[in-house]
Specification:
three-stranded mixed beta sheet, 2 domains, 218 residues, alpha/beta, Alpha-Beta Plaits
Length: 218
């Protein structure tokens, strides 16, 4: 499954000359943790996060401190260009979501801009990845069955069971396949199943299946 399949395409962005206060308002009102910063051509040039606009913008209350905090010589940067981060972790639209999940965990990221070449194509977040894990088993089963039957051109020749995102694919009774062909097709079927959003694991069994359309016990 690729990032393009799960990313958010309608992305709220800001420009480098946008007010930092406005960027803070957007994040506070929309619940965003960060906003991509793009130039006039839509090329990603940075990202502005909650921490960037919080930094140095909440002066200490002198009534609550024994020692007064020195007054800064100048106010904090007022434009996004003065607070944004220019070193941005991005992912391409064709990236494997499994690789992105590892990036989020290892680098402790909450989201990442998605690029198509140099242009911003969307944004992918932890929440986007989590949504794939909570798809109903019935929807996952229907997608797997459609792909498998389309690939093998054997309508009614397969039985798919899905439980908690784990797919088990059986050959339906009465379908005779050469042993060599069976191994190649079964491998391709398992690979296809793993491309379906919401799939946690997939396997193809060669034993006798249950009635077509039956669901695995939960």
């Amino acid at each position: 499954m690729q990032v393009r399949d799960v990313m958010t395409r309608e992305v709220v962005t800001v420009g480098p000359d946008t007010s930092a206060k406005y960027a803070a308002e957007v994040m506070a009102e929309q619940g965003f943790a960060a906003l991509p910063v793009v130039d006039e051509d839509g090329v990603l040039i940075g990202i502005v996060a909650e921490a960037d606009v919080l930094r140095d913008r909440l002066p200490a209350d002198p009534r609550l401190h024994l020692r007064r905090t020195p007054v800064p010589d100048a106010p904090p940067a007022l434009l996004v260009r003065g607070v944004m981060t220019t070193s941005v972790r991005t992912v391409p639209v064709a990236a494997d979501v499994a690789d992105v999940a590892r990036l989020f965990v290892d680098a402790r990221l909450r989201s990442a801009p998605v690029l198509d070449g140099e242009r911003l194509a969307g944004i992918v977040s932890r929440r986007d990845l989590l949504r794939t894990l909570v798809r109903p088993d019935a929807e996952i089963r229907a997608d797997v069955l459609r792909l498998v039957e389309g690939y093998t051109q054997e309508p009614g020749g397969w039985d798919v069971q899905v439980s908690d995102g784990v797919a088990t694919v059986h050959r339906a009774g009465g379908v005779t396949v050469d042993a060599g062909d069976r191994e190649a097709v079964d491998s391709a079927v398992a690979t296809l199943a793993r491309t379906v959003p919401g799939i946690v694991a997939a396997r193809v069994l060669t034993d006798t299946p249950g009635p077509p359309g039956s669901a695995a016990p939960r």
